[in-house]
Amino acid sequence: MTEIPKEEYILKCTSACAGCSSTLSLRYVLKAAGPDMVLVVPACCTSVIQGTYPRTAMNIPVYNIAFAAAAACASGMSAAYRKKGVKTRVIVYAGDGGTVDIGLQALSGAFERGTDFLYICYDNEAYGNTGMQRSGSTPLGAITTTTPGGKVHPKKDIDRIIEAHNPPYIATACSAYPLDLFQKVTKALSLEGPKFIHLLAPCPPGWRFPAEKTVEVGKLAVKTGSWILWEREHGTLQVSGPSRAAMKKRVPLDEYLKMQGRFRNITEQQKQELQRNIDRALARIACEVKQPCS
Amino acid sequence: MRGETAMQLIATGNKAIAEAVRQVNPEVVAAYPITPQTEIVEQIAAYVSDGTLASQYIPVESEHSAMAACIGASVTGARTFTATSSHGLLYMHEMLHWAAGARVPVVMANVNRALGPGWNVWAEHSDAFSQRDTGWLQVFVSTVQEAYDTTIMAFRIAEHEDVLLPLMVNLDGFTLSHTMQPLETVVVGDFIPPLHLPHAIDVAHPRGYGPLTGPDEFFRFRWDIERSMRDARKVILDVEADFGKRFGRQYGPIEEYRCEDADILLIAMGTFGKEAEVAVDDLRREGIKAGSLRVRWFRPFPVLDLSGRDVVVIDRGYSFGFGGVLTRSIQATTKAEPFSVIAGLGGQEVTYRDMAGFVRNRRPGEEEWFGVNTIV
């Protein structure tokens, strides 16, 4: 049985919105990592949530860095610690904009160079910090302030981009499954080299659902197959429990979409495309699990 | 092994800088290659590869990442170095501000080169000038020996507790980066003390670094940069004096050549400032009492006393709609009314004969673009 440490590394009174799932998730990330770590944070919601100088809501060192630079900053930090013979963990906690868009080059470089660090992308599927503008990670049909009629392009598949770097560990997680997240962070930190965790983080004000529904929305993302939980260690794929269940019996996609105001303009055609993408992604995973590629 | 005894070598400006870096032994070097800086990173990579330098060498995918990696390494308390040029320097621009704001003593060699379009790999100072307000100390060198000596001093100045700001060593592309000159190395020894970064990350005492900072606090951090920039003047003098005492070569904010009795001062930076000394000798033979004043430190900008003398400034970079950057800096800080010559852009050839012509045909208060308007 997994025991979650009682130590809290996020102090009371963050500036997070009510129902913020990225902060709930970060709590478990930090518990899994322990105090000998540095959290590198580019421009994102977490730059606000941590509090304003001279105060901080974090009981671990937090290094804030420019939007595009998180993975590169972590590279330098990791190199310096390894040079000193220090085991301090370097963890990037970045939003989807800072990961799949502006930070992608630095991220790719850091993974190609085998940097010893953990990169966690908490994905609220838009530029949340600046008021929900579209990102490359915004799903098809979702309304943002820069896609007022709904996004016409599908979500960028960052996981396959990262997978192309053949990292020792890559996983997806969802804020609604904190134990799964805790275990994945623990696993990732037990391995050397570049590790990636892609965390779905439902955002009540941005996705337009009541704050108390954060966990419910996250669970529906997984149960409908919109978000698949899996991990890939040294190339070997394993589907995580909640998604194994979803592969056997799926909740209809509509249940997930209708809870969120951001999908109020979605067309039937877009829904069908979302459904096709889910089916394809699940089929690909099922195929690989059944017959692993050598 | 090299570095344990002083040696007489023949080296390019780039090799001299790599040799200085090898001796100072930074813990982390993160760099991206660009002409004409490539030889510096190639040489450092070779040193790391053959074990003569124990640094962690991070072959980053861009200059933006080079500076971000240097910042990340530096905040752990590690000594860091990088090198770039031209477009690479501009690609770092955001992170240059970040380095100064984060108060990390990163040392960087910048091989001065023009900016496109059109593509041009030759010397110009526009790259460094465009970064003048980032909070970096900037020094311009003129010989291979000076490039080496200054790079060594750069670490001690940047890392001094009264400074703790990043420092850029500028050298002209090709005319210095690729020019072979004699080089006498030193034994660095305890000239560079171990780096102590007072705000280095300490996991036992967690703090937030660079979080949201409101209008009632932010300006204090900007003032602190300026205060250190002012304090750097004395630190620079002290470090240069100690270097002179230990190793026998004297440097200062400016280098003067035959200025004591001069009626006319020819002012330039980088290699032009050395070439100007030959022009001065020629002019003196004609009976013109000229002197050469080479501006070495650009940030903090030196205090110049030019009173009672004519001034000719050669600018190797321009602020469009405003004027020659060095000229305007001198006008802003002295009462001089210089004859401003814009020359050497994109590697345009300017000889000591041309420079002597600038002095002979000076028109105080006016501006001349060399090669555009013919100087008679």
Mean pLDDT of chain A equals: 97
- Gyration radius of chain A, to the nearest Å? 18 Å
Name the chain pair whose interface involves the most residues.
A-B, 45 and 41 residues
What is the CA-based Rg of chain B, rounded? 20 Å
Enumerate how many helices of chain B there are, as a single number: 11
Helix-strand makeup class of chain B? alpha/beta
| Helix and strand composition category of chain A | alpha/beta
Strand order, biggest sheet of chain A?
2-1-3-4-6-5-7-8
Please indicate the count of domains of chain A. Answer: 1
Overall CATH architecture of the largest domain in chain B: 3-Layer(aba) Sandwich
What is the typical, i.e. mean, pLDDT of chain B?
97
Report, as a whole number of angstroms, the end-to-end distance of chain B: 55 Å
Global geometry of chain A: globular
Low-confidence stretches of chain B: none
What's the layout of helices and strands?
The complex is a heterodimer of chains A (294) and B (376).
Chain A: H1 21-33, E1 37-41, H2 45-49, E2 62-64, H3 70-84, E3 89-95, H4 97-101, H5 104-112, E4 117-123, H6 158-163, E5 169-174, H7 178-189, E6 194-200, H8 204-207, H9 214-223, E7 230-233, E8 236-239, H10 241-248, H11 253-257, H12 268-290
Parallel strand pairs in A: 1-2, 1-3, 3-4, 4-6, 5-6
Antiparallel strand pairs in A: 5-7, 7-8
Chain B: E1 8-11, H1 13-24, E2 28-30, H2 38-50, E3 56-58, H3 63-74, E4 80-84, H4 86-91, H5 93-101, E5 107-112, H6 126-129, E6 137-140, H7 144-158, E7 167-172, E8 181-184, E9 208-209, H8 218-247, E10 254-257, E11 264-268, H9 271-285, E12 290-295, E13 297-299, E14 310-315, E15 318-319, E16 323-324, H10 325-333, E17 339-342, H11 352-360, E18 367-369
